[in-house]
Design a protein that fits this description.
Bound molecules: zinc ion
Order of helices and strands: HHH
Shape: rod-shaped
Radius of gyration: 35 Å
Structural class: mainly alpha
Number of helices: 3
Largest sheet: none
Length: 122
Amino acid sequence: MKKLTNLKTQPNIQESRLKENIELLDQIRADAVNDIESLTEDFQHMTLVAESVQRNYRALLAENQLLKGTLLSIIDECGCGQGNRCDRCWKLLKILASDNSEEKPDAARKYRAILSQLRNLE
Ligand SMILES: [Zn+2]
């Protein structure tokens, strides 16, 4: 009789340990689902931020384009004429071409080189 009870408690301990494991696994999986949910929320938020930055940048580019067009038409309408530009038109042309060679030599070219390097990395 004593031997029988002993045999019965042994598998009971094993069973409860296995059940604990099952609960633990359930908990881990529930945690993983929560993590994925919060990651998804983070990505959604980042997408909104990226879209907002994109919108602002597009607006800025459009504004920039408008200003450039205005300045170019001022040059076109100036009495000085092509090949004999006045100081003001030269100044505007240099600014529009980002050609401030006196202050920053080849800034636009360096920028373009960096950009093409970055594109080659993709
Ligand atoms: Zn002029």
